[in-house]
């Protein structure tokens, strides 16, 4: 497949313009659906991080912050809405670029671009609303004092994002950080950076003040690590693996720097015996095979009531066989490639080990026979799983579903919570009281009832346990980038009177 004209050779986006990396190195961009090289991206180093952070620091404090950090929220909202408008205008090109870079079906990339634009628009509204929330009074029991709260931008934000939703995951951080008045350095994954670099081009088009957003690309140890440990970065927000999240926490702790982490998951989906089978099956496959299972919140552990297990599995396999696996640019594709050869091999090892440990590969588990190139894996359904198996305990991040049966509600909850992770969880049942009980019992940050994976920009997103902490999206996403300042004023004309005054001569 030839590279379309939308793939342009970009540099690092620093101080409102393009800059070649300090060492002149670049990394190849591989289309995971064809294994063809379709371009390259800059490989930033610590020196480039230094320049980008300096640009963000200067933009934050320039002219006392009048042009950005201390400007009215309406000023920042104007730029966020302009970015959203450009995203909509270039939606088709951006979606194509996302698919070529990540291997996801074009329909999914198209929907992602809608979500990107909606996210910028949502935080534009919150930026405007922020002005009206300033100086919120605090009720005090003392008449001599008046107190209020200011919400101020935290400073320079280091944003490190994942490859599974390249531009959307970046937007979840860029939009609220800019809405709050922060300036930022974005470091997307080296496996999928093209649309994030195009965001830099859009920032130029809309006239975003130089240095407000800077975008560096490159490897984690060479660019991400120096960004997370930089003394002039005031806050780090990260989406990615739990192991990398631990390293970022360690680096930030040296300077007592706030972090928010959205990490891995091994989310459960509990299905009871009172459901419409096909309706529940579709949610089950949507919850794991969307984006080829490369979703941190994927409901990759399916818990089935024993009364319906056989019937459910029969229908599950029938639905899985009906999923169109193809070049992600083909109309109707519902399962594209995984992101890279490394991820492809990792997923195959998970499946192989599950088989060796005694699990049954009920369906899938191999390359689709009609696709000779690209990093494609069939939707995979694994049964006869024990709770000690790797496939039950570790995040696969691929189109792999493992299944256990349960008899009682309490057993289902125990199995659901049997994980180090705590991002999402779901329950499907027509008994709403039961759904409410399970909602309270699940140890996770997101619960879905009679569905799996809906993601709404207005609602908080984040997890517990080893899935991280902090919440993105909604008003909580904005709060990530704000610091609260208490202001208290003494209002009396009288002397305070705590100390005895000296004698007057």
Automatic annotation (TrEMBL):
Catalytic-site annotation from UniProt: 262
Gene Ontology MF terms in the entry: 4-trimethylammoniobutyraldehyde dehydrogenase activity; gamma-guanidinobutyraldehyde dehydrogenase (NAD+) activity
Record keywords: NAD, Oxidoreductase
Domain of life: Eukaryota
Positions of the Aldehyde dehydrogenase domain: 18-487
Tagged with keyword Transmembrane helix: no
Catalytic reaction(s) noted: 4-(trimethylamino)butanal + NAD(+) + H2O = 4-(trimethylamino)butanoate + NADH + 2 H(+); 4-guanidinobutanal + NAD(+) + H2O = 4-guanidinobutanoate + NADH + 2 H(+)
A Pfam short name: Aldedh
Pathway stated in the Swiss-Prot or TrEMBL entry: Amine and polyamine biosynthesis; betaine biosynthesis via choline pathway; betaine from betaine aldehyde: step 1/1
Family (UniProt): Belongs to the aldehyde dehydrogenase family.
Annotated protein name in UniProt: Aldehyde dehydrogenase domain-containing protein
Organism whose genome encodes this protein: Urochloa decumbens
